[in-house]
Amino acid sequence: QPILSMNSVEVLYDNVMLAIKGVSVQVPKGEMIALLGSNGAGKSTTLKAISGLLKAERGRVSRGEIKFEGTDMTGMLAQNRVDMGICHVIEGRRVFEHLTPDENLTAAAPTGMSRSVLSAEKEKIYAYFPRLAERRNSLSGYLSGGEQQMLAIGRALVTQPKLLMLDEPSLGLAPFLVAEIFGILKKINEEEGMSVLLVEQNALAALEIVSEGYLIENGRVVMNGTAEALKSNS
Ligand code: ADP
Ligand code: ADP
């Protein structure tokens, strides 16, 4: 059974704008899957349908079904989805700039997480992201774009997600940093068994780390296959 199963999902914004037109995506447990495609294709909308963030943008799923670990997500609030283990790192690396990385991680921890578990989680995150560890007590507003992206991912990891969804983490970063961050994501996926759904316009970089990809164009999946197959097609 896939951890995430999305079947023929349509999303309407403002009751008129059909942004995705019957998208089906499966994420097998423990796998890393990419949604590829150009700007405006419907990739972010697909992630928002899964995390429940559509409502704030006057959007809604108007058809189809989304199941997480077999549970139908229809009508479920975004916070409940987080509690179930779905974490969505939205585009634009949102972090609290007036707080340090350490304080950002604390602020992102689920309510009720004990101090000892939180501090163990932080150390685990810093071990994955040594650059972040070095800056843990600097103000986050002064971190580089790459370090802020690492912190945005760290804020997601501290919630101990089962499915980590990332929207364009490579945006605006130097190629060496993209390679570094993607390498770390792959390592987390392998070592923690965490399932990952990665949205990327940078198909070449994404296809280096995922097992499978979906190409989305104009609100529809136009191609789905293994990373190898998609690489030879692009
Ligand atoms: P991508 O992530 O692939 O760039 P999006 O999912 O952001 O694409 O957008 C898909 C389509 O939906 C685009 O035509 C976009 O203009 C439209 N869209 C996205 N968000 C909204 C919104 N809140 N209201 C109306 N239209 C939207
Ligand atoms: P366990 O179920 O072995 O007690 P945890 O409760 O520590 O594992 O974490 C739950 C899930 O969240 C794990 O499956 C793991 O994939 C993921 N996870 C938790 N913390 C981290 C982290 N710091 N980095 C990466 N993945 C993490």
TrEMBL record:
Family annotation (Pfam families): ABC_tran
Residues in ABC transporter domain copies: 4-234
Gene Ontology molecular function, alphabetical: ATP binding; ATP hydrolysis activity; branched-chain amino acid transmembrane transporter activity
A biological process from GO: L-amino acid transport
Keywords for the protein's UniProt record, in alphabetical order: Amino-acid transport, ATP-binding, Nucleotide-binding, Transport
Entry's family note: Belongs to the ABC transporter superfamily.
Designated name of the protein: ABC transporter ATP-binding protein
Native species: Sulfitobacter geojensis
